[in-house]
Amino acid sequence: MSERKPRGLAELIERVGKVDTVGIEERVAKYGTRSIKKASKVQGLKMAVTMVDLTTLEGKDTRGKVESLCHKALRPHDDDDIPMAAAVCVYPAMVKHAAKIVKGTPVRIASVATAFPSGQADIKTRLEEVKGAVRDGADEIDMVISRGAFLAGAVKQVQDEISAVRDACGEAVLKVILETSELVTYDNIRAASFLAMDVLRPGDFIKTSTGKTSDNATLGNNQVMLEAIRDFYLETGTEIAMKPAGGIRTAKQSLTFLVAVKETLGDNWLNNSRYRFGASALLNDLLRQLVKEKTGNYQAPYTFSEASGAY
Questions:
Q1: Residue 307: is its pLDDT beyond 60?
Q2: Is the pLDDT of residue 311 over 50?
């Protein structure tokens, strides 16, 4: 017997269409078979570096730790051929410290907000947190939706909250975290993607995960969201960006995710204004692979400074 959906959620799924689960799994299985070698591999690795959001989201974060993270984002390795990371991502209280290092550079400041990672706070409190982070210098806000409200069928409430956070962001980019593992099904993930995109601005993001659950970004949920972005673009002409987060730790994984982007959305999404990796642990493996491609030798992992707080 199929799961009975609350009326609001069932109607949303009916409107945006259901997901062919078998088709998704077959499609993503093929991405890992693509062969990327030599110059194309180096290009892909460097592209991935430019898409990393370096992140520290721990209760023991300090000003010094955040400043160190910022310096690594600006210069990931002692090699002028290696580009900067996309952003540093920190808690709202740490935004002002990050701003002292990276403001005025290409590296952006992202801040998780809206009672991250649970989203379990009243909307007034969540909006004040967003406004405070933007006031302190955040260029981007990563918000979490109320998964409980969504699964209970209160889809209008969830969308209204996204709209309110978008307005509180001002000119800052908004990334809407769906927390895909808690949405359970591909149908729910597609529906939540459309719910968010309907009220986002061009250049805002939908994002898989907080990185704080056991199951984060996968090729499957990434593909469902990429296809939702594609279908929304074909319907509206609005370009929404994408950020898989959590569990992407190796250069090989990142290249496979980029293959998915290219084959689903095309070259226009192969830049860090349209695609990001929320995976700080990924950066050192990208650097290790780039050094290997340049010198022919793998470096020991401790050769590269730590990028803490992967998510």
A1: no
A2: no
Residues 102 and 158: their CA atoms lie apart, in Å, by 33
Q: Reduced to 3 states, what is the DSSP secondary structure of residue 116?
A: coil
Provide the pLDDT confidence category of residue 309 given band limits of 50, 70 and 90: very low
The pLDDT tens digits of the residues spanning 127-149 come to 999 999 999 999 999 999 999 99
Task: Give the residue extent of every domain in the chain.
Answer: 7-303
**pTM (2 d.p.):** 0.93
Question: Which residue out of 5, 65, 72, 207 is catalytically annotated?
Answer: 207
> If residue 87 lies in a helix (H) or strand (E), which one and from where to where?
strand 87-90
pLDDT digits (tens, 9 = 90+) for 209-231: 998 887 889 999 999 999 999 99
Which is catalytic among the residues 142, 187, 204, 285?
Answer: 142
Beta-ladder partners of 49: none
User: Nearest 5°: phi and psi at 176?
Assistant: -100, 115
Known catalytic residue: 243?
yes
Residue 59 predicted with pLDDT over 50: yes
Sheet of strand 53-55: strand arrangement:
53-55, 87-90, 108-112, 140-144, 173-177, 205-207, 241-243
Which one-letter DSSP state was computed for residue 297? S
Tell me what pLDDT residue 279 has. 77
Read off the DSSP letter of residue 267.
G
7-303 is classed in which CATH architecture?
A: Alpha-Beta Barrel (3.20)
Please spell the DSSP secondary structure of 233-256, one letter per residue: HHHH----EEE-BSS--SHHHHHH
Look up 207 and say whether it is catalytic: yes
- Select which of 5, 96, 131, 243 is catalytic: 243
Sign of the CA dihedral with 154 first, then 238, 184, and 120 last: negative
Nearby residues of 147 by Cβ (< 8 Å), 6 or more positions away: 119, 178, 179, 182, 183
Report how far residue 251's alpha carbon sits from residue 13's, in angstroms, rounded to the nearest whole number.
Answer: 35
